[in-house]
Specification:
The structure is a homodimer. By secondary structure, the first copy, chain A, is mainly alpha-helical. Chain A has a single domain, classed as Arc Repressor Mutant, subunit A (Orthogonal Bundle). Chain A has a two-stranded antiparallel ribbon with strand order 1-2. In chain A, helix 1 packs across helix 5, helix 2 crosses helix 5 and helix 3 packs across helix 4. Chain A is elongated and about 60 Å long. The first copy, chain A, binds a DNA duplex through helix 4.
DNA sequence: TATTGTTATACTCTATAACTATA
DNA sequence: TATAGTTATAGAGTATAACAATA
């Protein structure tokens, strides 16, 4: 995700997108493409670019040492197999490491590495800034409003109170 | 996209997602996963499931006979090569057909088929309903608010007035 | 018997670049 | 020289199901 959608051809100015005009899922899905591409550009070369989940995983492991993969998987809406590959990747990049849980030897505990912690510092700067920059044309109060509503949606989807 | 994220493990109720808590792009990207999976389930077997773009393409071709691929590509944030494959697929499914433009023989014009028009009827019912159902817990006035703001974002991104 | 995480596979989407044919 | 669309390819993400180890 990093290629802009090509230069504006002659798009009729009065084009109407039918029922999608009032469909929230359409805007979520379409804006997702644009914002994800932009984010990938900003993160270029940083080992957390591409796809959803690496950034959240890095921050959660940094904030909650020993957190379990299945907990993160749930919060980023991935299944365990996708989560496993995400962790493989991040481990290979030296960002996090796994340990077997002493309490339950089926389970794992995740810990941040020095490189991971350093990257987390960068990510905490870049990621919120990218979002603000990308949506700069939405006034701050409106942005806050949308965030509040979508936060509730997110928490409901993953079952947080 | 159709597999739910696995049953809630023991996720601490007070977990905090760091800077992402206030980052619009995070919510757009994460909710996109959930709503897209749900939409795919609702569209199962309908030839427009999976990925972004088929639905918009179908409706635009139905509404604007002779519309050109590059115009749609621009509106759905794809490049021409991705658009081409999308059209291949939809043509194979008998939903649309291509013609060479009489005015400019480099360009194509897209037209809906009978099957495509019939599917468009179904899609106009299912897609907005899926969105409303999925976000049922967001009060209508708030949903309207979010849609208005994201519509402006979308139009700005693709350069519509 | 249920759970945690792994592996394997097939499919799709994405990004890129090189190509043609027309203009 | 620029544009519309095509083709080819490499890389990632996604969905599934089957599996091992442990509880």
């Amino acid at each position: 995700m990093s290629k802009p959608p090509a230069k504006p051809p002659t798009v009729p100015e009065d084009i109407n997108i039918d029922v999608l005009e009032d469909t929230l899922s359409f805007y979520i899905r379409t804006i997702n493409l644009a914002v994800s591409r932009d984010l990938d550009e900003r993160l270029e070369g940083l080992d957390v670019a591409k796809g959803t989940g690496k950034i959240t995983t890095l921050l959660l492991v940094d904030d909650y040492p020993g957190i379990r993969p299945s907990v993160i998987a749930h919060l980023i809406l991935k299944d365990r197999s996708a989560m496993g590959r995400l962790i493989d990747q991040m481990e290979q990049h030296g960002l996090i490491r796994r340990e077997v849980s002493p309490e339950d030897s089926r389970a794992q505990e995740l810990y941040i590495t020095e490189a991971g912690a350093a990257l987390a510092v960068k990510v905490r700067e870049i990621v919120p800034k990218q979002s603000r920059d990308f949506f700069f044309f939405i006034p701050e109060d409106e942005q806050k409003l949308v965030i509040d509503i979508l936060r509730r949606a997110y928490r409901r989807i993953v079952g947080l109170p």
